[in-house]
Amino acid sequence: MQHTTQTAPHETSHAHEHHDLGFWRTYVFSTDHKVIGIQYAVTSLAFLFFGFCLMLMMRWQIAYPGQQIPVFGKLLEAILGETAKGGVMSPDLYNVFGAMHGTIMVFLAVVPLAFAGFGNYVVPLQIGAIDMTFPRLNMASYWTFFLGCVIMFFSFFIPGGAAQAGWTSYSPLATTIPTDGQTYWLIGMVLLITSSLLGAVNFIATIIQLRAPGMTWMRLPFFVWAQFVTAFLLLLAFPPLEAAGIMQLMDRVFHTSFFLPTGLMVGGQVADISGGGSPLLWQHLFWFLAHPEVYVLILPAIGIVSEIIACNTRKTLWGYRSLVYSALAIGFIAFIVWAHHMYLTGMGTKISAFFQTTTMIISIPSVIILTCLFITLWGGSIRFNTPMLFALAFLPMFGLGGLTGLPLGFSFADLHLHDTYYVIAHFHYIVAPGTIFALFAGVYYWYPKATGRMMNEFWGKVHFWVSFIAMNLIFQPMFAQGMAGMHRRMYDGGATYSGVLDPETGDVVGLPGFIISLNKGITHAAMLLALAQLPFIINFFYSMFKGKKVDDNPWKATTLEWQTPTPPPHGNFDKHIEVYRGPYDYSLPGAKDDFTPQTEPSHK
Amino acid sequence: MEVPYTSKPRPDTGLYNAKVGIWLFLASEVMLFGALFSSYILLRVNALEGTWPHGLLNIPIGTFNTAVLITSSITVVMAWASLKLGQFNRFKIYQGITILCALAFMVIKSVEYKDKFTHYQVWLKDGETIRGHIEVPGIEGKPWFMTHKKLEAMEAVDHITIHPDPKPHVASAGGEAPEAHKSENHGGAEEHAHEPRRIEKADIKRLSAFVPAHSTYFAIYFTLTALHALHVMGGALVMAYLWGPGSKMWKTDPERFTNRIEVSGLFWHFVDLVWIFLFPVLYLL
Ligand code: HEM
Ligand SMILES: [Cu+2]
Known about the structure:
heterodimer; A: mainly alpha; disordered N terminus; B: about 280 residues; alpha+beta; binds protoporphyrin IX containing FE; binds copper (II) ion
């Protein structure tokens, strides 16, 4: 490892610049991108777990409606009181948990982990920068996010509980629910959005301004490109939701009627409002964010997977340029597909034709990306370590999620499938066995850089295989349930609509018993998934102190983050960084190793 | 360790960091106000015939405020140009004027807001609507934020007195009843426009000051102008800091200080630009 130990003579002074900042400035109110990245990652991993626990309890209610939740039921009653009477989940509580599962998973877990967590830690390292462009803004961004999290979390414990109108918060429902949860949700969202905007500005500015000498655009690791496009999506798509959030807040607090139509009836009476608003306006503004948001959920994941696949096949990525252009294409088209979530609002055939077309078009770059990654595997000498297993599993899982999305993009098929468990299965294949697996892959992959120690391989593999099986047992049956007509957001798992025999035709009308009985299997698989996370959690903390010690470049990778001391000090690099080549020069003919770092000059 | 390119531009991009930052930030601001303007258009296009009020804002005051902001836009450039020429004292004067303009804008806007909060519309059960200032027995001066709900709760009150605005027919565009119906029943209203009129509490269907809850028009008016006012305040605070304590940097790092003035100036131009759109859209159209 000569290149990691050599130190340019004039740079040895970096230890002296480590002026003591004290505990608070070093670990809590730090402006160092690595500390902030870890803060984001830890906070969001905690919320990932929390969001999953909410869903576990909901799954129990779906499979065994009206029965006491084992273990947690009594606890729930003790904390929340009436709404969990006897340890049974009430319909209101189901709505609270459902809305907050979605909100937490998307805005408090996956985005902050994939974008802010990994992005903060890895991007400056990969482009050879000493930090983000605006370190103090970075800190402000984390703490704004944290405040948003606190408000969201706190809202569970106010009278009436947290928001109940789904993560989509459609008005008039969201506006007219009499409890205060939605108001907290809106205030929380405004903070989370503000934080994302600050983060996005910082990321883009960093990638534009702080690339090391020689790090041209086409030498950027694909992960950086993915984060770059993601940052633009956040920057331009989030403000409309912020505007919508402000307007819904006005509706709730100052009794305006932005989203409330004339003649609205609430509880059998004409509502005492001015009227004149438009419920569809909310849906447009919401989906104008929320479609790009799904690419915010997936692009960083694709970026992580690309890094890991290139490194562990010991090959350059096949079609690097196609990957980059596809990511950019996705970034543009993502802004003109949003109304495919609204086919049922009666938008008319012309507009629906437009959105069906753009939706089909945006699937092309996604397919190109997936194809490039699959072809990269071809002929590689693949190392099946834990990060690689997760990355490999990502490909078919993302593929399945993507392909099952196509029918939803056609209005005629969507009329049948809209708001059923088919939709739940489709997008969870993308975000759960898709993105979440990529995030696990990223944790295992960059863990040695952040801590100097490996996570345990054996327990990593146990974590992978059990999770992989459980995920599919959970989400595969939901396709069948959805196609049979089972609706989402039903607190009894469809029991109300269970099938009865039509004596005339002999057909079953309603949901067949088999479809409903799948609920039990899914719930048990979800419990298995929960169990499978235990080795990960233990491994994560145990390895911090007891894991195998590693050198600066344990995976023998080419990109710049492996050219730093481990863990990287404040300021990152202990030598002058100059980039001479593309990001994935693996197995170059005639090279002395099977990897050639980006800092290796071409002619020597 | 210092982040590079904080004052000198990066050679290949030609930009210093904060300039990249502010342009990106402004792009997101364009989307924020863009969404609100789009909402305005959608709400207005969807409004039922005759329910979108006209002529309720004070155009002379609005015009004057527009002039104030445009002036500040000029002085903010002059301030930056002065720094480029190395004339710190001229910078102080020009930037001082900019900040005063911002303050003037806010004061004028508050007066306008206050006017609205004490100006009322009453919808009567027979379909008539009247706009004007009201008196409520037992409340001294002009009541603020009165509503029919609050009136109902006031048991001692059985009527209010309204001083109708002149030109009730223009104002009646906001009412729910068709135009023709009103002029039939209240054809004589014109000449008595200024005379106070007693209205029985029992006849009132709805009563609202010109507050956000009054109509979607005022809802979007207040949302847009309040958000804009927050931007004015934010900008003024930053500029005031850079004018006062922050200007010490001129001695230590003049180039970076000039950059800061440029960046805050760019933000200020954006705030002005938003107003240039807001004024015709809300006041004139
Ligand atoms: C891996 C474990 C997960 C399981 C078992 C799970 C399960 C579910 C189920 C069954 C529903 C439907 C509830 C209903 O309609 O009543 C749901 C809704 C949802 N989930 Fe998940 N989920 C998981 C992870 C995730 C992740 C990682 C994300 C996001 C990144 C996510 C985002 C959502 C959203 C947005 C909804 C819709 C909420 C709403 O109806 O408003 N979930 N989840
Ligand atoms: Cu979409």
